């Protein structure tokens, strides 16, 4: 492929997200963090907005798009579809009414790549039973792909980022390590990259890349189905702010502390993270289309695991909720599990 999607952008996937502190400052200065009407059940810093429109009915909306993670357009489209729908599934909602696509690409990009990205996103959504009903496409120096999703739910069934309670156990449904794995994916295609990777076993790179791509295109819908069966307290998906950043949202909104005592990572990624300088083992590396971090009471944890097992969802216990005021502590002697 002469035109490489990943070659024409300087940042990839959710790594193009604005850092949390910059986003917070932007929202504050724009006056978008104030009080809303009582019908608004969730706004900024939640995974999706939630607005009650009638008794027993709430509408969820989310918008998510980013630059390419891979050069294969249909896989890139699937990653985008997985990522945008995850924001709704994270709230424990499986009824997604529709998706609108958002795409942009430069004039010199072959049109078949645009077709491939749209096809991949559309195929993913159709497999989840979600109609793709329209969207918006523009010219842009960087190619981007994503969408806006609308969910429908009874308000009392929604799971928010807030709500974690002291004593809760924390489970993560996908291993971490997307950033170093996909850095290896890109660098092995470059002569200077091959030199950097010299000495790293090919099978280790293959396993890391395959694990990362498989994770990104795996839907979080079964996780939402499991959360509908068990009274979990809080949940957030892990994307561009990394495990520590998204856990911090959960901690601040719940006015509790989170302790991470185990990191589940894609097999082979600790070696790659060390080589490239990614802060994977402190929980700070950025993820794309990652898993869901779930806070559940001790007495309900086994039931949650059973429901996840029934749906063949991989899951890992990564920590617990402690008394505090919004801090995240990744232990220095954190256990690292390569999965």
What does this structure look like?
The protein is 35% helix and 26% strand. It contains ten helices and twelve strands. The chain has helices at 20-30, 73-89, 111-127, 178-187, 191-196, 202-216, 221-229, 242-254, 269-276, 298-310; strands at 40-42, 49-54, 57-66, 96-105, 132-139, 144-153, 169-172, 234-237, 257-265, 292-296, 316-322, 328-338. A six-stranded mixed β-sheet has the order 1-2-3-6-4-5. A hairpin with a 6-residue loop joins strand 1 (40-42) and strand 2. The two termini are 31 Å apart. The model has no long low-confidence stretch (mean pLDDT 94).
* Rg, Å, rounded: 19 Å
Overall spatial form: globular
What's the main sheet like?
6 strands, mixed
Q: How many β strands by DSSP?
A: 12
Overall mean pLDDT? 94
Helix content: 25-40%
Q: H/E element string? A: HEEEHEHEEEHHHHEHEHEHEE
Coarse structural class: alpha+beta
């Amino acid at each position: 492929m002469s035109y490489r999607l990943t070659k024409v952008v300087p940042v990839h996937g959710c790594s193009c997200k604005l850092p949390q502190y910059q986003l917070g400052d932007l929202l504050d200065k724009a006056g978008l963090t104030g009080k809303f009407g009582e019908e608004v059940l969730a706004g900024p810093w939640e995974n999706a907005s939630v607005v009650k429109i009638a008794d027993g009915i709430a509408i969820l909306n989310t918008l998510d798009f980013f630059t390419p993670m891979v050069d294969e357009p249909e896989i890139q489209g699937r990653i985008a579809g997985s990522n945008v729908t995850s924001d709704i599934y994270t709230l424990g909602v499986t009824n997604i009414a529709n998706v609108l696509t958002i795409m942009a690409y430069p004039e010199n990009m072959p049109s078949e790549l645009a077709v491939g990205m749209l096809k991949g996103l559309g195929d993913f959504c159709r497999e989840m039973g979600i109609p793709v009903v329209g969207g918006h496409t523009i010219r842009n120096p960087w190619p981007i792909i994503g969408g806006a999703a609308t969910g429908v739910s009874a308000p009392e069934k929604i799971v928010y980022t807030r709500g974690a309670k002291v004593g809760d156990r924390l489970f993560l449904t996908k291993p971490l390590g997307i950033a170093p794995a996909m850095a290896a994916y890109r660098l092995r295609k470059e002569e200077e990259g091959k030199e950097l990777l010299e000495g790293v076993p090919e099978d280790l790179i293959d396993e890391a890349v395959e694990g990362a791509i498989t994770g990104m295109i795996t839907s979080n819908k079964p996780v939402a189905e499991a959360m509908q069966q068990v009274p979990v307290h809080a949940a957030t998906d892990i994307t561009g702010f990394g495990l520590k950043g998204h856990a911090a949202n959960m901690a601040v909104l719940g006015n509790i502390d989170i302790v991470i005592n185990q990191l589940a990572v894609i097999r082979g990624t600790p070696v790659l993270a060390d080589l490239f300088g990614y802060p994977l083992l402190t929980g700070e590396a950025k993820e794309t289309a990652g898993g869901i971090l779930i806070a559940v009471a001790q007495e309900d944890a086994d039931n949650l695991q059973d429901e996840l097992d029934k749906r063949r969802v991989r899951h890992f216990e990564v920590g617990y909720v402690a008394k505090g005021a919004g801090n995240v502590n990744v232990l220095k002697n954190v256990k690292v599990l390569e999965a």
